[in-house]
Specification:
two-stranded antiparallel sheet, single chain, about 5% strand, two-stranded antiparallel ribbon, 4 strands
């Protein structure tokens, strides 16, 4: 009788055991899928928040290998899986908030840059419409000449400006200057600038000559136009701007036909600005670079310029 009871008990245990295990495994499967999905999403957000950096590790990590159970477990596998999911969801929420903050700050930076660019564009536009007065330039050293002469001073552009409003008579005088039409656009532009200068219409001549040197930097008239631009500034009573124009002609086209002449005018401009030591350096440079090729007229101008600047013999 007792043998039958034990046999029945063993048979019942065998039948009931596998379904319970199957039920446990069936419940863990969907949770594992959710964990895998959350982990992938968290890694994607981490790459966005920490590009190239160290990502934030989740509070709960999966098992790295099989372990031998010791004693009774503190919680069930289902509770452990639920805890991992909670930790991952919290991590995702935190990282998503960081992504949103980063995007907001980026938009603020872009807007600030656009405002700054707008202000710079407005300032540049105002600078093109302004006529600069004779403010003494700041002098900085330039590269030494190939002849080993003392480095030539580089005048800096003035910063203050005033707006000139031409009167009707001035506008009529400008309109009276004929624009040549020979078929050579570059030559016509230079000739028109020269005619404006000869008529004493300095602002218009300066504008036309600046357009010419910007448009035709390799033209044979470049040295003429850049030198004439300096002459227009000088004759208008703006030696600071004149010194910049003369200096650029020498620096950009040292072999140009008006390069040596620009140096003599640069010396005169610096003398007017009370920069006598710098003027003397210019005359030294003129002699070292062009001494044997100077015309008698330029030699006479240089001698007078050295005397005016009180240069040592």
């Amino acid at each position: 009788m007792r043998a039958r009871i034990w046999a029945a008990a063993l048979l019942a245990g065998t039948i009931m055991g596998p379904p319970a295990m199957a039920q446990s495994n069936g419940s863990a499967g969907p949770l594992d899928q959710r964990i895998g999905k959350l982990e992938k999403e968290m890694k994607a957000v981490q790459r966005s928040v920490f590009p190239g950096g160290t990502p934030v590790q989740p509070d709960i990590v999966g098992n790295t290998g099989p372990t031998e159970p010791t004693g009774n477990p503190a919680s069930t596998p289902m509770a452990d899986l639920a805890s991992r999911i909670d930790a991952l969801e919290k991590g995702l929420a935190s990282l998503t908030g960081q992504v949103e903050q980063t995007g907001y700050r980026g938009r603020q930076a872009d807007e600030a840059i656009k405002r700054l660019e707008g202000r710079l564009a407005a300032l540049e536009g105002a600078g093109h419409a302004a006529m600069t007065d004779g403010l003494a330039p700041t002098v900085a050293p330039s590269r030494p000449s190939s002849s080993g002469a003392v480095p030539l001073p580089r005048p800096a552009a003035p910063t203050r400006s005033t707006i000139v409003k031409p009167d009707p008579a001035h506008r009529a005088a400008v309109a009276a200057i004929e624009m040549p039409a020979t078929g050579d656009a570059a030559e016509d532009d230079y000739t028109y600038g020269y005619r404006l200068y000869s008529a004493g219409l300095y602002p218009e001549a300066e504008l036309k000559l600046k357009e010419f040197v910007a448009k035709y930097p390799a033209h044979r008239r470049y040295s003429y136009a850049q030198n004439l631009l300096g002459r227009a500034y000088f004759d208008e009573g703006k030696p600071a701007l004149a010194s910049v124009a003369f200096y650029e002609n020498y620096q950009k086209a040292p072999k140009g036909e008006r390069a040596a002449e620009s140096l003599t005018w640069l010396g005169q401009s610096l003398t007017k600005l009370k920069k006598l030591p710098d003027a003397c350096k210019v005359y030294d440079e003129l002699q070292d670079v062009y001494g044997t090729r100077l015309s008698s007229d330029l030699k006479a101008k240089a001698a007078k310029g050295r005397a005016d600047a009180k240069c040592p013999a």
